[in-house]
Amino acid sequence: MVFAGHATRVATRATRATRATRATRATRAARAARAAGVAACCAVMGALACSSPARDLRGLGAGDAAVAPGAPVANIAPGLGAAGDTRVDDFGDALQLSAPAQRIVSLNPVTTEALFAIGAGARVVGRTHWDNAPHAALAVADLGNGIQPNVEAVLAVHPDLVVLYAAQSNRAAARAFRRAGVQTLTLRTDHVADLDRVLRDLGRVTDRSTEAQGVADSVRRSLAAVRAMPSHGTPPSVFWHVWDEPVITSGAGSYLDELLTLAKARNTFGDLAQPSPQVTLEAIAQRNPDFVLAGPRTAARLRTDTRWQVVDAVRLGRVLVYDTMLVGRPGVRLGEAARSLRLLIDSATRARR
């Protein structure tokens, strides 16, 4: 009986160990999947796509009234542009308009904000969860995600053009829209330099090229003004906190990396090729950044999380809180975002001396 009882206890322990191992593997797999999803979100929609609503773009309203559902709309043949002008988009699809688009679903926060900025906001009849700027965009129908969107929900608002982010995971949706007779314009919005092209294309499909050029010129001047701001010694090293569990930051060539360069700072992980790499606390501590950049809620959490005390910048109170409503996307407020970041870092650098 003693041996039988011992065998039972051993078997029970083995079963528990097996279950624990399976649970651990499942947890690790879930974390890995979540990390991949977060990284994709960071790369696709901007690292702060899930931040709180952005401030209103005052004065950047709609130019003309939206067409009612079911009303005659522009006949968009395969191809892009106004009145027969053809262009190949970032999926390699040709787009050609016989007339300006009148009912637009914009499934990218950058393009939604740009459409309002050029005065075509009233033609936007659908947006994503994350399109929170300008404030007027919140009145537009929320159609869900911009990555692998709900095709049926989009078609239900009767668009004549759908603007998509050019992610591979959106190819199936683009094909589905085209099969349904609705043309698509897919655009990458990953870098500062992309904005000029995005504005130009949106201006052409809406017949508001003059307004689009005006917005592009304004952004260009504001960026030039930030670049012209005097430097103050060696650029500080800055760790950009993008996500907490797992810890994700900004890598080389990403929009956030470019924004740090504009702000005359050095990205702590700017040598990593991935735009949104996953890193460890130990690696952050070893690289010893001068400052940590985080949103308001994250900054408060980092300051009280004992795990982050291994990072000198956190332990010594050098966590900088940036405007998550402004800085997150390579959109029409690029210049304002760069200036805001530059002033924040400059002020902290001066206070440290």
Average pLDDT over all residues: 82
Distance between the termini: 75 Å
Number of domains: 2
Instruction: Name the strands of the widest sheet in spatial order.
Output: 5-4-6-7
Gyration radius, to the nearest Å? 24 Å
Highest CATH level, the class of the largest domain: Alpha Beta
Percent helix: 40-55%
| Beta-strand percent range | 5-15%
At CATH level 2, the architecture of the largest domain is 3-Layer(aba) Sandwich
CATH superfamily of the largest domain: Nitrogenase molybdenum iron protein domain
Low-confidence stretches: 1-14, 26-30, 32-40, 43-83
Q: Do you know the CATH topology of the largest domain?
A: Rossmann fold
Tell me about the largest β-sheet: 4 strands, parallel
Q: What do these coordinates show?
A:
- The structure is a single chain.
- The chain is of the alpha/beta class and 353 residues long.
- The chain folds into 2 domains: 76-224, Nitrogenase molybdenum iron protein domain (Rossmann fold, 3-Layer(aba) Sandwich), CATH 3.40.50; 230-352, Rossmann fold (3-Layer(aba) Sandwich), CATH 3.40.50.
- It has 12 helices and 11 strands.
- The strands form 3 sheets. Strands 5-4-6-7 form a 4-stranded parallel sheet, with helices on both faces. A 4-stranded parallel sheet has the order 9-8-10-11.
- Strand 8, helix 7 (255-262) and strand 9 form a beta-alpha-beta unit.
- Helix 5 (194-206) packs antiparallel against helix 6 and helix 6 (209-227) packs parallel to helix 12 (334-352).
- The longest helix is centred in the first third of the chain and has 44 residues, at 2-45.
- The protein is elongated and about 60 Å long.
- The relative contact order is 0.13.
- Mean pLDDT is 82; it is low at 1-14, 26-30, 32-40 and 43-83.
